[in-house]
Specification:
The protein has 158 residues and is α+β, with helices and mostly antiparallel strands. It is built from 4 helices and 7 strands, in the order E-H-H-E-E-E-E-E-E-H-H.
């Protein structure tokens, strides 16, 4: 099979949408962590209490951090996300979702991986048509959606 030549599409976007959180969010998270640690200690589960305390602290630190910029490149070799390159043979299908409220459209890529089969990539809205036209030359479009756990976490504010 001959390799299909395509025009390179390159853009940079934050790894995820950063949400500013108020002091109430941090107080609530701290209170939940303290109560959960207290219950774990009350049931004589010290290791689990330590795990909960470390998890709460990591969650707070991760929330305060701003997302790094990632460079995405769609080229003849495959799809590059930062330092990772995914060849077209490892990508099953794609879909593009656009909502008016988000600053970016979502490019959903379904891979042949078992652990993380669907990647959600922020795509500038002005590149949507060009991306759809280019990807249709290489892989099929399907009605894939974000995972339910990902949508649930976004509703919770993560």
């Amino acid at each position: 099979m001959d390799e299909i030549k395509i025009n390179t599409i390159e853009w940079s976007a934050p790894e995820y949408n950063h949400k500013e959180r108020g002091p109430d969010w941090f107080w609530t998270l701290g209170l939940i962590t303290i109560v959960a640690c207290g219950i774990a200690l009350w049931t004589h589960n010290t290791i689990f209490a330590i795990f909960l305390a470390i998890s709460g602290a990591c969650l707070i630190m991760f929330t305060l951090r701003h997302p790094p910029e990632v460079t995405y490149i769609v080229e003849t070799k495959g799809l590059s996300m930062g330092k990772d390159l995914y060849g077209w043979k490892s990508i099953k299908s794609f879909n593009i979702k656009n909502t008016e409220t988000d600053p970016y459209a979502k490019l959903l890529i379904e891979t042949s991986k078992h652990f993380l089969p669907v990647y959600t990539i922020p795509l500038p809205k002005e590149k949507m048509d060009e991306m759809k036209e280019t990807l249709l030359k290489l892989i099929p479009r399907s009605e894939i959606d974000e995972s339910g756990s990902m949508l649930f976490m976004e509703k919770l504010g993560f």
